[in-house]
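This is your field. Have a critical look at the following sequence-structure pair:

***
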Amino acid sequence: MVRINLRRQNPSKRSPWIFRASLLLSVLLLGHLSGAHEMIIGGEIAKVAEFPGVVLLKMSESGGVGAMGWEGSCTGFLVHPKLILTAAHCLQGHTHIDSISNGVKGSGKDSAKFREDEINSRPDFVLPSSDRTDAQRKEAASKDIGYVVLREEIPADVIAPIEIYVTSDSPSMNRLANLDATLVGYGATRWEKSGNYEGASTGTKKIGHKKITDFENGFIRLAGAEGGALPGDSGGPILATIDGKLKVVALNHGMTPEQKQKTDKHGNPKFDKKGAPIMELTGNYGATIGTMLTKDNLCWVERTAKIDLPGVECAN
């Protein structure tokens, strides 16, 4: 388990994409440490050998302190015998991964362990922050992809890569509307309304279920309430059934805490001087955001990693 300290900033009053940094980044971020319970909100602990292609990535200060300035852990998933996809923000600031494992308890007795040869994150991904515009946040949500090249290939009869669904145009994106989604990750085992995850735990593979509610160019939103992404789930797969097969349609980018419009003492909605609604956090879980596996994202991976991904056709 890994410790991190979440910093707090004031929530914005204007946009549902702008919120307290500690909550904005609660899934974008990294792992936490030992807890007494393994309570999964809206989900369950994976069984042994379930989703073996989903892995725990642990990073520490020995590899850099990360873009957030913290050490921690994230989730990734195997899409090629030698390549794992994860979130760009998980890898920024690191030069290597300390450990890669796939057991229910991370590196437990049921775990296989792997060694990395190279890590990389999309260079035009810029970490969201409270002073960025909605357009900048949406761009970040569409480009939050990175990869880990393994030192040795994993035979498909040992661990089969997870099939990916490439979203390259409007028809391919439209197929995602209202689909039931499965999320897999090694993140925190409970939602903390305060944004303070001291005493929570990561490192146990858990599975949650939500519905894809809507999407924009490059990212999807999943229904609010419990069972979504939490700190440490970043980079994990979001899967849906396409053509009768369970495929990865996106990777975990982050979550948005639920907000509501402020009211005055008479119950009337409040607006700022420009007429924008003044929002406040409710303390409830909001929506999970997933970075789509677009052709643009996957072709960047192919070009830089020099690995051909199944089902991805890129121009030479």
